[in-house]
Write a structure and sequence with these properties.
The protein is α/β, with parallel strands linked by helices and 484 residues long. It contains twelve helices and 18 strands. The protein has a domain at 53-368: Metal-dependent hydrolases (TIM Barrel, Alpha-Beta Barrel), CATH 3.20.20.140. Strands 1, 2, 3, 4, 5, 15, 16, 17 and 18 form a nine-stranded mixed β-sheet that branches. The termini are far apart. Bound molecules: N-(aminocarbonyl)-beta-alanine and zinc ion (ZN) (2 copies).
Length: 484
């Protein structure tokens, strides 16, 4: 009756940990019971944890940066790396650059994503919200199940300004979609850049100085205010500061339709990594930048106490060579070095080891942070949990193995990993996507292109009552209807 039965394991969901077997039929979980016999294939999960396959909700794959640098990973290498890291699906970005039509952008990414070995969708980056984009192209994107957008408050070529952001928030809200935001104050960063340049301070370590914690805090505060004005859902990506996390926590208490993530690099690394000899610090350049030990501790407390829905990788793979970090030359000043670091394979092993094994979070929190919350926030309704009817997206973890992170274990197209040498306990040994084994004990079993596009549902706003600004409430604004 079953194609595959996973037996004798400890099943973990965001709400329960229990002994049980899983029966898989036609790519879906068909049964969960104390014992299930039969099955064309039986996978012994004795001594193992059986969890929902990870959903990587923040990755840059086959994407050109605003200055035209292509990521080292395409949808094949990026998805393979994700699979080795315990993920069954991911949501990379499809990036609109100024002057491009969203329809064309999506057609381009549809072509690129054909190679994926795991299921996927896209968050659509909007940098040029023309009337055609707002009125026609975004509604067309919603119709095909692309229900999240990312906007930038920084970078001259991406930053929308507050008005543009309000337009996107409003259109997204009208369709039940969610707006994601990279929150850093552009003018503060540019001012810092000018000051540092005037003193000739251009080494990679000054990247961290040029993007102050206050730039993130100010922008997060502003982004939340903009979302409150139109009562729209907002997701703050890669929160890197204690102050920013506290603003998120406070706004959630106030009922704002707010979601947020942080990333392993902000929990594991510091700005001292940018101060490595020579240009080595370029490997650790990402935006927002790495902070300090005190901030790491504060961010961990926010992970523990529920400020963040997800811990995502922000995998932005630029190699340590002229194709990536050094397109502007081997000694380029930091503003001309590509921002971003790889981490799609390291995300879950890091979170498991430093979170669960280190006693900071429970197994159930691990599942919530790695898969369940992303599924709910981003509308992957058949993914992110273990229950009859759900896609059989499953990762079987050995919680007892300890190994050192190596570049080879990342299985990506990079020439470094910022997590090199870190000793982590817990390994995803077998990973399934829709019932197909894609990784088995260190061997890739998936064929190029077997991943499928996942049309997504609208954002789940359960428990988020929202906020109605008086000036947008017809009961208080002389009956004026300003935004939906
Ligand atoms: O430094 C990073 N994270 N690069 C990727 C682009 C972005 O800012 O999201
Ligand atoms: Zn970003
Ligand atoms: Zn990013």
């Amino acid at each position: 009756m079953f194609d595959t039965v996973i037996h004798s394991g400890t099943l973990v969901t965001a709400s329960d940990v229990f002994r049980g077997d899983i029966g898989i039929k036609d790519g879906r979980i068909a049964a969960i019971a104390e014992t299930i016999s039969g099955g064309d294939r039986r996978i012994d999960a004795g001594g193992r944890l059986v969890m929902p396959g990870g959903i990587e909700a923040h990755a840059h794959i086959a994407q050109e940066s605003s200055s035209g640098v292509m990521t080292a990973d395409d949808y094949y290498t990026g998805s393979v790396s994700a699979a080795f890291g315990g993920n069954s699906s991911f949501i990379p970005f499809a990036g609109q650059h100024r002057g491009q039509s969203v329809d064309d952008v999506l057609a381009t990414y549809d072509e690129r994503s054909r190679r994926s070995v795991i299921d996927y969708s896209y968050h659509l980056i909007i940098s040029d919200p023309t009337e055609a984009v707002l009125n026609d192209e975004l509604p067309r994107a919603f119709k095909r199940g692309i229900t999240s957008f990312k906007v930038f408050m920084t970078y001259d070529l991406m930053n929308l300004g507050d008005g543009g952001m309000l337009d996107i928030l409003t259109v997204a809200k009208a369709h039940g979609a969610i707006t994601m935001v990279h929150a850093e104050n552009n003018e503060m960063v540019k001012w810092m850049n000018r000051r540092l340049a005037a003193k000739g301070l251009t080494a990679p370590r000054y990247h961290a100085i040029s993007r102050p914690e206050l730039a993130e805090e100010e922008a997060i505060n502003r982004a939340i205010s903009l979302a409150k004005l139109v009562d729209a859902p907002l997701f703050i990506v890669h929160v890197s500061t204690a102050g920013g996390a506290a603003l998120v926590q406070r706004a959630k208490l106030d009922g704002v339709k707010l979601f947020a993530e942080t990333c392993p690099q902000y929990l594991a690394l510091t700005r001292d990594d940018l101060d490595r000899p020579g240009m080595e610090g370029a490997k650790f350049m990402c935006s927002p930048p790495l902070r300090d030990r005190e901030t790491q501790q504060a961010l961990w407390r926010h992970v523990q106490s529920g400020t963040f829905e997800s811990v995502s990788s922000d995998h932005a793979p630029y190699r340590y060579d002229a194709s990536g970090k050094f397109t502007a030359g081997p000694d380029a000043p930091y503003p001309k070095i590509a921002n971003g670091m790889p981490g799609i394979a390291a995300r879950l092993p890091y979170l498991f080891s430093e979170g669960v094994v280190a006693g900071r979070i429970s197994l159930k929190q691990f599942v919530a942070l790695s898969a369940t919350n992303a599924a709910q926030t981003f509308g992957m309704t058949a993914k992110g949990s273990l229950a009859p009817g759900m896609d059989a997206d499953i990762a079987i973890w050995n919680p007892d193995v300890t190994r050192k992170v190596t570049l080879a274990d990342q299985h990506d197209n990079m020439d470094f990993t910022p997590f090199e040498g870190m000793e982590l306990t817990g390994v995803p040994e077998i990973v399934l996507n829709r019932g197909n084994i894609i990784v088995e004990h260190g061997t890739l079993r998936a064929a190029e292109g077997q991943g499928r596009f996942v049309p997504r549902a609208t954002v789940d706003l359960t428990g988020k009552p929202g906020y109605l600004a008086k000036e947008l409430d017809p009961a208080h604004n002389f009956g004026t209807r300003i935004a939906p």
